Amino acid sequence: MTPLQRFDVGPRMSEMAVHNGVAYLAGQVAGDATQDVGGQTRQVLAAIDALLARGGSDKSKILRAQIFLTDLADFAAMNAVWEAWVVPGHTPPRATVQAALAKPQWKIEIVVTAAV
């Protein structure tokens, strides 16, 4: 059994935990929330790429993705960015729901779990 590792530990949460060959990411949001949903999605996916790399994984190993959109009218624009990012033949199981996020300027939050 591999030891539990936590990354970017804060007083409320960690950005990622890796245990027994699985990386569990916290919900990722855009750093620059002034961008439209496409720009915010690109930022979130870049953050996911960076965290997965630190944990010894990558987007081809995502086991599950949960996407939270503040407005389902943004679904097509988000999907255009998502589909350009995912690895063909390795698209993960995914759920997308409409939700109110912690800050009103955030348009998207994504949570992933990945094999290491």
Helices and strands in order, then pairings?
Layout (H helix, E strand, L loop, with lengths): L4 E3 L8 E4 L2 E4 L11 H18 L7 E8 L5 H11 L8 E5 L9 E8 L1
Parallel strand pairs: 4-5
Antiparallel strand pairs: 1-2, 2-3, 3-6, 4-6
Number of helices: 2
The CATH architecture is 2-Layer Sandwich
| CA-atom Rg in angstroms | 14 Å
Strand proportion, as a percent range, falls in: 25-35%
Net shape: globular
Number of domains: 1
Quaternary status: single chain
Task: Give the CATH level 1 class.
Answer: Alpha Beta
Commentary on this structure:
With about 120 residues, the protein is of the alpha+beta class. The chain has one domain (about 5-115): 2-Layer Sandwich (60s Ribosomal Protein L30, Chain: A). About 25% of the residues lie in helices and about 30% in strands. It contains 2 helices and 6 strands; from the N terminus they run E-E-E-H-E-H-E-E. It has helices at about 35-55, 75-85, and strands spanning about 5, 15-20, 20-25, 60-70, 95-100, 110-115. It has a 6-stranded mixed beta sheet, with helices on one face. It is globular and about 45 Å long. The mean pLDDT is about 95.
